[in-house]
């Protein structure tokens, strides 16, 4: 079955995992996040190290270690998290970045532009606090 819109596994883990950490009110570790998101602990660790590098999280080592938020949940947008993992969202008219279309009318009729703009707007308007 075809899906028009999908999130990469990495983006999904980052977004859901950050909400898990925010809901914990303290620390959440890789094993907890991996179990809740039904993901590989190695993949979670890799993604969360990126979020630490980008100053969303603090990483605490040891048996009682884990991750904690560096900023207030209301100050972290879903867009920031998404772009930390996937890179900046580029809103373009043509999904193939063609400057000259071989047709008189775009077969997508700018629907991909609208979808991308709506997606970016949704992520920018929502923060971690909205999911607590």
List the helices and strands and how they pair.
Blueprint lengths: L8 H16 L5 H8 L3 H13 L3 E4 L5 E4 L8 H9 L24 H15 L7
Antiparallel strand pairs: 1-2
Helix pairs in contact: 1-2, 1-3, 1-4, 2-3, 4-5
Explain this structure.
The chain has a domain at 9-88: Arc Repressor Mutant, subunit A (Orthogonal Bundle), CATH 1.10.10.10. The chain contains five helices and two strands. A hairpin with a 5-residue loop joins strand 1 (57-60) and strand 2. The radius of gyration is 18 Å and the shape is elongated. Helix 1 crosses helix 3 (41-53) and helix 4 (78-86) crosses helix 5. 46% of the residues lie in helices and 6% in strands. Strands 1-2 form a two-stranded antiparallel ribbon. The chain is mainly α. It has helices at residues 9-24, 30-37, 41-53, 78-86, 111-125, and strands spanning 57-60, 66-69. The longest helix is centred in the N-terminal third of the chain and has 16 residues, at 9-24.
Shape: elongated
Residue-averaged pLDDT? 91
The major beta sheet can be summarized as:
2 strands, antiparallel
- CATH architectural arrangement of the domain at 9-88: Orthogonal Bundle
Give the end-to-end Cα distance, rounded to a whole number of Å. Answer: 33 Å
CATH topology of the domain at 9-88: Arc Repressor Mutant, subunit A
Strand order of the largest sheet: 1-2
Q: How many helical elements?
A: 5
How many beta-strand runs?
2
CATH superfamily of the domain at 9-88: Winged helix-like DNA-binding domain superfamily/Winged helix DNA-binding domain
Structural class by sheet pairing and helices: mainly alpha
Please give the oligomerization state of what you see: single chain
Helix-strand pattern, N to C?
Answer: HHHEEHH
Q: Helical proportion?
A: 40-55%
Kindly provide the radius of gyration, computed on alpha-carbon positions and rounded to a whole number of angstroms: 18 Å
Beta-strand portion reads: 5-15%
Which consecutive residue ranges, at least 5 long each, have pLDDT under 50? none
């Amino acid at each position: 079955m075809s899906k028009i819109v999908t999130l990469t596994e990495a983006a999904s883990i980052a977004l859901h995992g950050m909400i898990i950490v925010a809901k914990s009110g303290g620390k959440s570790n890789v094993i907890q996040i991996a179990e809740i998101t039904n993901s590989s602990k190695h993949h979670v660790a890799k993604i969360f190290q990126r979020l630490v590098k980008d100053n969303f999280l603090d990483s605490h080592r040891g048996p009682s270690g884990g991750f904690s938020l560096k900023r207030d949940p209301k100050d972290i947008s879903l867009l920031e998290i998404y772009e930390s993992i996937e890179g900046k969202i580029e809103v373009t008219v043509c999904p193939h970045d063609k400057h000259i279309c071989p047709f008189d009318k775009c077969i997508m009729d700018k629907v991909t532009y609208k979808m991308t703009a709506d997606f970016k707007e949704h992520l920018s308007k929502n923060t971690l606090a909205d999911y607590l």
